[in-house]
Fold this sequence. Notes:
19% of the residues lie in helices and 28% in strands. The chain is of the alpha+beta class and 307 residues long. The chain folds into 3 domains: 34-137, Pleckstrin-homology domain (PH domain)/Phosphotyrosine-binding domain (PTB) (PH-domain like); 145-241, PH-domain like (Roll); 249-298, no CATH class. Strands 1, 2, 3, 4, 5, 6, 7, 8, 9, 10, 11, 12, 13 and 14 form a 14-stranded antiparallel sheet that branches. The protein is elongated and about 80 Å long.
Amino acid sequence: MEFLRNNRTTEVPRLDSMKPLEKHYSVVLPTVSHSGFLYKTASAGKLLQDRRAREEFSRRWCVLGDGVLSYFENERAVTPNGEIRASEIVCLAVPPPDTHGFEHTFEVYTEGERLYLFGLESAEQAHEWVKCIAKAFVPPLAEDLLARDFERLGRLPYKAGLSLQRAQEGWFSLSGSELRAVFPEGPCEEPLQLRKLQELSIQGDSENQVLVLVERRRTLYIQGERRLDFMGWLGAIQKAAASMGDTLSEQQLGDSDIPVIVYRCVDYITQCGLTSEGIYRKCGQTSKTQRLLESLRQDARSVHLKE
């Protein structure tokens, strides 16, 4: 797929609310069956900012079959307490271990702007549930995304390349600092290395936000049609694009995998420091140095050094 070159004068594409998204994937999903006990909390209409204690989870017998995830009071119950249709799932997220009261949890986001949190003690069982739910709602078009583990998987409206007139719906998976995508007009694309982005920004108003991802030769616009799962993607992508630790290899990277922090410092010294006496032997103020270092660690691309 051909992508736009970075053009800062280009108007940010907006999602036309009067026209439906172009959905090219098949609505016929594979049949997946699975059952077992899960612990779940009450569904929420906003992101889970706080840790959910173990006492907030209820033990439920859950059955995945015929494109529906049903949860019952116990394994003998006939009538479910509730159900989630696979066709309504827009995102599946796997938080880090011990994020909540159970060692392993996963989140299910639906088109109705609801978030369901499930928990398990067993890593193997949690992985099996995530795999089965993913297979139940991801169409054959995007099945390549299931070949590896992910922190987040789902569908999002996007604009890219030469198709900026109307948003289409693509499938995305996030693993580490790598964002993979499947678009309707082609096979799985070369993954976006988020720590190598030239720009990561949010544009538009609160009702129509656009996440802009700019690489060296392509630009991708992700639309915020559904606010709940979009905010989850936004936070996850921003975190994945940031520095991962204290070593240079874990920082945001530029061309030739050279850390952005190195570019910033060398460029500044070249432009402003070569005429300063003692530039390489006089120490700066420790408190200012620490503040600058912390800013560079968080997001080196947004730091603009000045005298």
